[in-house]
C-alpha cells in the first residue's frame, strides 16, 4: 500500500502533509457510497470515497496530502456473486508524482495482469487474488474479506506468494446515529509485516478503518473512534512483538568470551586482533590477547575469521514499532529518531528498554515545525516564535539533547530558537526552512544539516522558491549536475562548515532510487538484498514513486552522481559526517555505507562514521560507539571484514545488545526474509579441572 502508509510516510527526506486535494467530480455509478476521512496527527488530510452500483461495479477515489505530497488514486473493480474481483484497474499519481497504472482480469479460468513494473498471464491461478503495486485501504479490505472466506483463511496471491488472514480483536464503536460492531483483521503476505484493517461485523463486512500511529482512515462520522481503535490494535501488535522477543532473545548471564576475533578500533579507525573479547553483565569487561581468555566462561563463541564491531548507529530514523526488529537484525543497535509523535516514541522506547519488544536503543530529537498548509504534524507545530521557544524548553525539560527545525519554520525564527537551544546545552539540526539557504541556517545557529539535497539547494534556490513543495527534490534532480564543485561558492561553503564544526547527515541512499530508478527496474538501493525478500516485497521494489522518464533520466543520473561526489568532498574537507537513512529500516544503512565508499571515503573511516561518530553526536560516546573496557556490550559479529569489503556489513552472524544476543538469520526468518549469514554458535564453557 502507499509505502505502507505509516511506516514509509515519514521517510524519503523528511515529511509533512498539505490539506486535502480530492479528485473532482461525483463518485462513478453513484448507487451506494461510503466515505472515509484521512487524518494525520489530528488534522484532516484527505478522504477515501467508495461507490458501488447495482452491477457490483466499485469505484474508489483516494487522496491525501502530507508535507506537500501524497497520492491521487482511482481504483475500479467488478465483483462476482461471491464478492471476488473479476477485474481491477487503478490509475493516478503516486506520492512523489509518479504515474500509477495497474490492471487485472479473470476470465475463463485464466488471469492476466499488467502494471508499470511487470505483466503476466496464467491459466493455473483462477482462484488467486491480485496484489497491485499501489492500492488503497479498500483493496486491503477486499483481500481480507475474500481470503477470510477461503478454507483455512488462506489464498494464493498474484503475481506470487500467499495470503493468510487472522481475526484478532473486536470492538463496539459509536457515532451520532448509534453503535456498530467492528473487528480487527491482520493480512499476512502483502508486506513484510502484517497489514491491519478494521471491518464492520455485518453481512457486507465493509471497510471501517485503517489506523497507524499518526495516520488514520476512519468511516465518516466515526473519526473520534480512531484513537481508541489504534490503541487496541497497538496492544494486539505488541503481543505479537513480545512473543517474538521472548522467542528470539538469547540472554547471556555471566561471562561470554568471543575467542580469536578481529576487532574494529573505531577511535583510530583501524582493525586490531585477533583477540579474546570478554563480556560480563552486559558490558565489555576485557580485551585480551588471543588464547588468554578463560575457557570456563559461561558462554563461548568462536570468532576466527570474523570481525567484531561496535553496534551501528542509524542517525536519521523515524522509528515505528514494526521498524525496530529490522533495525536490530541489520546490526543497528542505536537509532537517533529525528522526529516523531512524542508520546508514541516514548512508549516504544520504554518497551525497547525493558526488552518486551526487540529493537535498538533510542535517542530522541525534538521536532519543531511552523504552521502552514505544508506542515508536518510531528512534535510541535507552532504559529509564533514564543510557541517555538516554549517547545525548545519542553524538550530540554524532558532530557532531549537536540532539536530539529523543519520546512515551515520562518527564517527569522531560526536564530532565536537556536540561541535558546544553545543556552540550554542543546544542539540544533534540521531541514533548511523555506526561503532560506543552508549557509544562512548555519550562520543563524544550525549545528547540523540533514539530507544532501538540503546542502545542494544552497546553490540552486532562488529567493522565491518554495522548498516546502516537491521542488526541493525536483530542483536538485534537474540542476545539481550543473554545479561546479571546485567553484568558489562551493569551496567557500565548505570552509564555513569546517570553521563552524557543522555536521552533515547526507542520507544518500534515500535519494538513490528516486533519481535513478525507472519503473520495472531493480531498486538500486536494495537490488543486492531483493532475492532474500518475499515475492510481494520484491515486486514493490520495482516501483518508483518519482516520475523518472526519458526526458529527465539522464540529468537525474548526472545530478545524483554530483550528490555522491559532494559527500566525498565534505569528508575530504574535514566536515564530520553521520550515517543516517530516513528510509526502510536496517537495509538502507548498509547501502548508505556502500555509497560513502563509492564517494571515495575509505571503508575503515566509513565504519567509524557509522559507530564512533554516531555515538559522539548522539551524546552516548561515554557508553557506546567503540570497543573499550567498561562500555555497554552493543556489538555485532560479522562473517567477513567490512573494513576490506564494506558490503560484508550485511553478513552479521550475531548482534549483542547489552547482555542479550540475537541471531539475525532467525530474526529475518520471522519476517519471511532469507538471512545473510549463519548464526555463530554460542557454546557453554569448559568445566574447570582441579
Descriptive report:
It is a single chain. Strand 32 and strand 33 (660-662) form a beta hairpin. Helices cover 28% and strands 30% of the residues. Among the domains are: 2-247, no CATH class; 366-426; 431-577, no CATH class. The protein is built from 17 helices and 34 strands. The strands form 5 sheets. A 15-stranded mixed sheet has the order 8-7-6-5-4-3-2-1-15-14-13-12-11-10-9, with helices on both faces. It has 690 residues and is an alpha+beta fold. Helix 4 packs antiparallel against helix 17 and helix 10 crosses helix 14 (553-572).
Task: Give me some keywords for this one.
single chain, disordered N terminus, 17 helices, 690 residues, 34 strands, alpha+beta, 15-stranded mixed sheet, ten-stranded mixed sheet, globular
Strand order of the largest sheet: 8-7-6-5-4-3-2-1-15-14-13-12-11-10-9
Distance between the termini: 64 Å
Q: Given the structure, what is the number of helices? A: 17
Main sheet makeup: 15 strands, mixed
How many DSSP-defined strands? 34
Short description:
The chain has 690 residues and is of the alpha+beta class. Helix 15 (587-598) packs across helix 16.
Topology overview:
Layout: H1 6-9, E1 32-40, E2 43-52, E3 57-64, E4 72-79, E5 85-93, E6 99-107, E7 110-115, E8 119-122, E9 129-130, H2 137-148, E10 154-158, E11 162-175, E12 178-188, E13 195-200, E14 207-212, E15 215-219, H3 226-248, E16 250-251, E17 255-265, E18 270-280, E19 283-289, E20 299-302, E21 307-310, E22 312-317, H4 321-329, E23 332-337, H5 342-354, E24 361-364, E25 366-370, E26 380-382, H6 385-397, E27 402-405, H7 411-423, E28 427-430, H8 438-444, E29 448-450, H9 452-457, H10 471-479, H11 488-500, E30 503-505, H12 508-516, H13 535-540, H14 553-572, H15 587-598, H16 603-618, E31 635-638, E32 652-657, E33 660-662, H17 664-670, E34 683-684
Parallel strand pairs: 9-10, 17-20, 17-21, 22-23, 23-24, 25-26, 25-27, 27-28, 29-30
Antiparallel strand pairs: 1-2, 1-15, 2-3, 3-4, 4-5, 5-6, 6-7, 7-8, 10-11, 11-12, 12-13, 13-14, 14-15, 16-33, 17-18, 18-19, 20-34, 21-31, 31-32, 32-33
Helix pairs in contact: 4-17, 6-7, 10-14, 12-14, 15-16
Amino acid at each position: 500500500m502507499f509505502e505502507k502508509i505509516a511506516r514509509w510516510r515519514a521517510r524519503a527526506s523528511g515529511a509533512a502533509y498539505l490539506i486535502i486535494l480530492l479528485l473532482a467530480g461525483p463518485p462513478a455509478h453513484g448507487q451506494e457510497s461510503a466515505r472515509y476521512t484521512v487524518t494525520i496527527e489530528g488534522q484532516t488530510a484527505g478522504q477515501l470515497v467508495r461507490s458501488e452500483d447495482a452491477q457490483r461495479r466499485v469505484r474508489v477515489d483516494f487522496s491525501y496530502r502530507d508535507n506537500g505530497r501524497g497520492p491521487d488514486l482511482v481504483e475500479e473493480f467488478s465483483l462476482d456473486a461471491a464478492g471476488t474481483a473479476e477485474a481491477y484497474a487503478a490509475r493516478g499519481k503516486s506520492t512523489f508524482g509518479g504515474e500509477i497504472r495497474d490492471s487485472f482480469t479473470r476470465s475463463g479460468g485464466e488471469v492476466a495482469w499488467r502494471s508499470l513494473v511487470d505483466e503476466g498471464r496464467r491459466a493455473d491461478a483462477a482462484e488467486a487474488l491480485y496484489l497491485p503495486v499501489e492500492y488503497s485501504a479498500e483493496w486491503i479490505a477486499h483481500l481480507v474479506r475474500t481470503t477470510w472466506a477461503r478454507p483455512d483463511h488462506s489464498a494464493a496471491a498474484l503475481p506470487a506468494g500467499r495470503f493468510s488472514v487472522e481475526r484478532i480483536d473486536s470492538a463496539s464503536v459509536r457515532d451520532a446515529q448509534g453503535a456498530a460492531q467492528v473487528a480487527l483483521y491482520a493480512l499476512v503476505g502483502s508486506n513484510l509485516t502484517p497489514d491491519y484493517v478494521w471491518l464492520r461485523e455485518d453481512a457486507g463486512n465493509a471497510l471501517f478503518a485503517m489506523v497507524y500511529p499518526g495516520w488514520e482512515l476512519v468511516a465518516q462520522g466515526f473519526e473520534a473512534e480512531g484513537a481508541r481503535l489504534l490503541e487496541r490494535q497497538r496492544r494486539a501488535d505488541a503481543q505479537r512483538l513480545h512473543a517474538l522477543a521472548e522467542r528470539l532473545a538469547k540472554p547471556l548471564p555471566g561471562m561470554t568470551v568471543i575467542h580469536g576475533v578481529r576487532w574494529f578500533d573505531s577511535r583510530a579507525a583501524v582493525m586490531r586482533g585477533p583477540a579474546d573479547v570478554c563480556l560480563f553483565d552486559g558490558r565489555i569487561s576485557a580485551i585480551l590477547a588471543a588464547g588468554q581468555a578463560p575457557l570456563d566462561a559461561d558462554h563461548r563463541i568462536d570468532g576466527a575469521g570474523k570481525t567484531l564491531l561496535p553496534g551501528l548507529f542509524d542517525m536519521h530514523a523515524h522509528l515505528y514499532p514494526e521498524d525496530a526488529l529490522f533495525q536490530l537484525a541489520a546490526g543497528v543497535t542505536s537509532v537517533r529518531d529525528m522526529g516523531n509523535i512524542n508520546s508514541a516514541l516514548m512508549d516504544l522506547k520504554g518497551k525497547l528498554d525493558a526488552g518486551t519488544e526487540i529493537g535498538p536503543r533510542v535517542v530522541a530529537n525534538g521536532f519543531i515545525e511552523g504552521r502552514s498548509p505544508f506542515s508536518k504534524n510531528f512534535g510541535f507545530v507552532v504559529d509564533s516564535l514564543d510557541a517555538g521557544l516554549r517547545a525548545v524548553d519542553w524538550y530540554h525539560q524532558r532530557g532531549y539533547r537536540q532539536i530539529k527545525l523543519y520546512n515551515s519554520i520562518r527564517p527569522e525564527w531560526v536564530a532565536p530558537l537556536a540561541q535558546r537551544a544553545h543556552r540550554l546545552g542543546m544542539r540544533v539540526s534540521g531541514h533548511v526552512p523555506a526561503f532560506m539557504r543552508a549557509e544562512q541556517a548555519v550562520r543563524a545557529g544550525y549545528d547540523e544539516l540533514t539530507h544532501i539535497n538540503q546542502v545542494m539547494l544552497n546553490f540552486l534556490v532562488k529567493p522565491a522558491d518554495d522548498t516546502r513543495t516537491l521542488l526541493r527534490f525536483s530542483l536538485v534532480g534537474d540542476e545539481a549536475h550543473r554545479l561546479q564543485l571546485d567553484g568558489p561558492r562551493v569551496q567557500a561553503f565548505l570552509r564555513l562548515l569546517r570553521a563552524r564544526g557543522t555536521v552533515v547527515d547526507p542520507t544518500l541512499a534515500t535519494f538513490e532510487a528516486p533519481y535513478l530508478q525507472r519503473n520495472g527496474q531493480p531498486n538500486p538501493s536494495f537490488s543486492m538484498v531483493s532475492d532474500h525478500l518475499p515475492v510481494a516485497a520484491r515486486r514493490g521494489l520495482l516501483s518508483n514513486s518519482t516520475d523518472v522518464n526519458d526526458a529527465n533520466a539522464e540529468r537525474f543520473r548526472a545530478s545524483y552522481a554530483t550528490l555522491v561526489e559532494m559527500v566525498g568532498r565534505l569528508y575530504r574537507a574535514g566536515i564530520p559526517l553521520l550515517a543516517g537513512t530516513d528510509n526502510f529500516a536496517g537495509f538502507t544503512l548498509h547501502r548508505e555505507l556502500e555509497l560513502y565508499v563509492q564517494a571515495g571515503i575509505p571503508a575503515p573511516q566509513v565504519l567509524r562514521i557509522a559507530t564512533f561518530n554516531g555515538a559522539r553526536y548522539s551524546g552516548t560516546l561515554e557508553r557506546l560507539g567503540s570497543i573499550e573496557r567498561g562500555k555497554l556490550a552493543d556489538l555485532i559479529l560479522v562473517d567477513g571484514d567490512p573494513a576490506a569489503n564494506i558490503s560484508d556489513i550485511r553478513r552479521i552472524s550475531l548482534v549483542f545488545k547489552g547482555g542479550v544476543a540475537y541471531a539475525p538469520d532467525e530474526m529475518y526468518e520471522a519476517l519471511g526474509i532469507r538471512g545473510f549469514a549463519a548464526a555463530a554458535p554460542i557454546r557453554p564453557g569448559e568445566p574447570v579441572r582441579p
